[in-house]
Amino acid sequence: SQTIHQWPATLVQPVGSPLSLECTVEGTSNPNLYWYRQAAGRGLQLLFYSVGIGQISSEVPQNLSASRPQDRQFILSSKKLLLSDSGFYLCAWSRVDRGDIQYFGAGTRLSVL
Amino acid sequence: QKEVEQDPGPLSVPEGAIVSLNCTYSNSAFQYFMWYRQYSRKGPELLMYTYSSGNKEDGRFTAQVDKSSKYISLFIRDSQPSDSATYLCATSAGGTSYGKLTFGQGTILTVHP
Fold first, then answer.
1. Which residue has the higher pLDDT, A62 or A52?
2. Long-range contacts of A48-56 (CB under 8 A, 24+ apart)
3. Mean pLDDT of B29-42
4. Of A7, A16, A46, A53, which has the highest C-beta tally within 10 A?
5. Is residue B4 within 8 Å of B104, Cβ to Cβ?
6. Is B52 left (phi over 0), alpha (psi -120 to 50) or beta?
């Protein structure tokens, strides 16, 4: 069966510090991968998606970037965090042929102080 | 106007009640409809997936889609305290190489014993 791992679960970072969140998927190959941000009371906002190694598409302009160095690894990064980057970050995967069915990781709660 | 509107609640019901959760959407191109359940501080879990109009039942859960009125519902029969969570509706038009989901804001449900 497929599993998705996301870490860390909680992170507190000072403003201006770098960020690296990692997500890995097991039990499947060539998945579509997604990064979302969830703000309180506001659904999920898609930040980035990837349909293959090195292929990253951004949905919204922001202080963040994403990379996919391996087939089942997806990384969310920032060079300098802003207060507004605080939130709940979720990684998700889907099969290439069933992009509408997405499976989420446990999420990372990021607090920028 | 948001593409998907969902009453954020909160909704509080006694154990055993029938719960009705609802969303409306504005884009007539949406044809895939999902319901996710999200426990506190966890990632969303896919509950129901339907295509086009109609009903789909899975145990105590029934998803209903009415494309003519752009209305989607999730019914929970014999609600249990373990059903207490945030419920997110999501839609997609399909037709892309990845899954572009549009989420509602989520409804917070509490089922009290």
1. A52
2. A48/A76, A49/B98, A50/A74, A51/A96, A51/B97, A51/B98
3. 93
4. A46
5. yes
6. left
Which amino acid type is present at position B66? D
Sequence-distant (6+) residues with CB within 8 A of B22 are: B6, B7, B71, B72, B73, B74
Strands A108-112 and A10-13: parallel
* Full strand arrangement of the beta sheet holding B19-25: B4-6, B19-25, B71-76, B61-66, B54-58
* pLDDT band at residue B14 under the 50/70/90 scheme: very high
Residue B103 to residue A43, Cβ atoms within 8 A: yes
Which pLDDT band holds residue B97 (cuts at 50, 70, 90)? low
Distance, in Å, from the CA atom of A45 to the CA atom of A112, rounded to the nearest integer, reads 19
A30 Ramachandran zone, left/alpha/beta (phi>0; psi -120 to 50): left
- Check CB contact of B37 with chain A, cutoff 8 Å: no
Distances (CA, A) of A104 to A32, A67, A73, A94, A107: 12, 18, 14, 9, 8
Q: How is residue B82 annotated by DSSP?
A: G
The amino acid sitting at A105 is G
- Asked if B75 contacts B11 with a C-beta cutoff of 8 angstroms, the reply is no
- For β-strands B45-51 and A108-112, DSSP reports them as unpaired
| Interface contact flag, A51 B45, Cβ < 8 Å | no
Residue A104 in this model has a pLDDT that exceeds 80: yes
CB contact (8 A) between residue B103 and residue A109: no
